[in-house]
Amino acid sequence: MSLYNIDWQAYWKDGPQLPVRRSPQLQVLSDGTLVQEVTAVAKDLLCGAYELGTVSLPFEPTENLEVYDALTMILPTLSEQSTFYWHRAARSLASMLATAKYPIRAQASHLIFWWARLGGLMGPTSIEARVGEQLDSTTSDGSNLEFSWAIPQDTDPSHESNRRVRFCIDAFHPERGHRIAGGAILDYLWSPEGNMGLVKNEPGSKDWKDILENWLFPDLKSTEEFVEGNTYMIAFDLEPSGGITLKIYYIPPHLPAPGTQPKNRVATYRVTDDLEPFVQLSKRLHPSLEPACKMFVDFVRGDGKESHMKWFMVAVDVTKREKNRLKVYVLSQRTTLKDMIYDMTLGGKISGPQIDDAMANFSKFFAHLFPYVNDSHTNIQLQNEIDDKDVNGNVSS
């Protein structure tokens, strides 16, 4: 069993359990004002488990942080870590929800979910208090939180819910500082006990996550067992309805040093060009995935060999089988636009109007991201900071 069995009560000092919620429908009515809307959502989701505060009048919130400012007055303190990350992380999430013009009730429910479920999983309030591999592998600054947008091609910034807000976390124990097994966290957040009636948990929607984890760590006795050297990222896709779809990412350990015996067996290690094991995984998830997976594996060791692609991360969504995706992430040594398009289309084997449109949009994005690149044959600069230059190479003043 795990060295660190998970006690969900330990993540919050006062620790009352919320009642099991089986529906995301919010029932408490309000008089229509923002403060009353937010208060109604809090009462509905928390069901009397906490004593709520009141909003001081006159209410003078920060622009685009109206919901957040109201909740800061309404919600009680759970722990030092929860409060720290409420101010440092949830505030940014609130701004993203507001600027994306999510409905007030959806903004409130997503922020309350963060407060009730995630603030205590973000780890100590200083990097120094963490143990083991303290820095996250997926962010440039090593933090264990990443926000992102999903912006539709035909979006209008003035429209309601004009983009999808997402984020992912790499969970750490709030006091001991060690990583927590992400598989168990996802199981809890997906369950009726943990989902607050907001996380989508249709029957069978977690099957691919379970298959992937059992394949990657074949001798795991429990999802609570932490695999040393592994990074778990749990992603949250926040819907304007207030619903939440989960995803999970795994970055397994590095290949062990010669003569060492790792604690857990791993199907494949990070940073390898041997993608053959994924063919077996694709068959377990669904037989229809196998031909596409084989095509990708053949390309990596054949026509795409010069790119020296290395696999480092794998992910699946937590959704119905017909909507799910197996996502295999690789790093490439070739960084020109031409080479990137060649690799992404598997040397032209993936083609058609939809792919042509996608690559055209990618080229536009590439040009804005790397304005100093004037043609498709120039390598991008491998550095974290890129000079602020326009399309003509002139540095902005």
Features of the shown structure:
single chain, 397 residues, alpha+beta, globular
What's the structural blueprint in terms of helices and strands?
Blueprint: H1 34-46, H2 66-74, H3 80-99, H4 104-118, E1 145-150, E2 164-169, H5 182-190, H6 207-216, E3 231-238, E4 244-251, H7 277-285, H8 289-300, E5 310-317, E6 326-331, H9 337-344, H10 353-369
Helix pairs in contact: 1-2, 1-4, 3-4, 7-8
How many helices does DSSP assign?
A: 10
Care to count the β-strands? Answer: 6
Average residue-wise pLDDT:
86
Unreliable parts: 12-17, 22-26
Estimate the global geometry from the Cα principal axes.
globular
> Strand sequence of the main sheet, in spatial order?
1-2-3-4-5-6
| Estimated structural class | alpha+beta
Span from first to last CA? 58 Å
Beta fraction of the residues?
A: 5-15%
Main sheet attributes: strand count, strand direction, barrel closure: 6 strands, antiparallel
**Residues in helices, as a percent range:** 25-40%
Rg calc: 23 Å
**How would you spell out the order of helices and strands?**
HHHHEEHHEEHHEEHH
